[in-house]
Amino acid sequence: MIKIGIIDDNVQFTELLKDILSTINEMKVIGVAHNGMEGMELIEKKKPDLIILDLIMPFSDGLSLLKNIYEESITTKVIMLTSIGTDEIITQAKELGASYFLMKPIELSNLPNMIMSICSDSVLQKTTLEKKIHNTNNDDKLELKISDILRSIGIPANLKGYFFLREAIQMINNGSDISFSKVIYPAIASKYHTTPSRVERAIRHAIEVGWNRGGIEQLDFIFGNTVSPLKGRPTNGVFIGFIAEHLMLQKGMEIGSFTTV
What we know:
Blueprint: E1 2-7, H1 11-21, E2 27-33, H2 36-46, E3 50-54, H3 62-71, E4 77-82, H4 87-95, E5 100-103, H5 111-153, H6 160-173, H7 180-192, H8 196-213, H9 216-223, H10 236-250
Parallel strand pairs: 1-2, 1-3, 3-4, 4-5
Helix pairs in contact: 2-3, 5-6, 6-8, 6-10, 7-8
């Protein structure tokens, strides 16, 4: 969705422009301003992807607003409109970052395609970056939750198996193939420059330490009646699977049974 701001002192023209752009599914007019001061406030508060900016306006003209945008390194794209475009003004507008300079009266039917052309790459990059940030934040939160569970069970952070366990649980929680010998152990081994068999043994050792040191109440909370200190230690796959499932259930998610290949 391309977010658009309209800054023009002609009220009838802004209403017409808003009506036309509002019919385009990929676009949304998020604000209208009728002078440069209101326009700068609109840009700062609503952060449009693109503004349609008139050159001549009261209080602060289009070039002054464009200069503010340029000096503050605002990435909003600009289509500038005018009825008195000289070569000098056009050159100045381009130097200040205007994407297009259109002479009034403009052909409104061509405007949506022009906006799509200007914004397609920048909006895609912005969306991709937002997703990456969101995913990174989610991964950080998940890692903290896993760390809290492992420590509460009694697995100390100085063990290699602690880090390997955390990686394995995170992989499953993020939808990785749950074949331990074919996918998870080799992936962790590659990341930590070791071998899959050493990863398996380190995880096994960490589970044994935690099972001997962990509180029964915490073990029961995560594993329920399926396993307990009295029934013996679970396999690597069962241990990792139950913690991953515990985390998913906390988020209201459902997962199928885990294999322990």
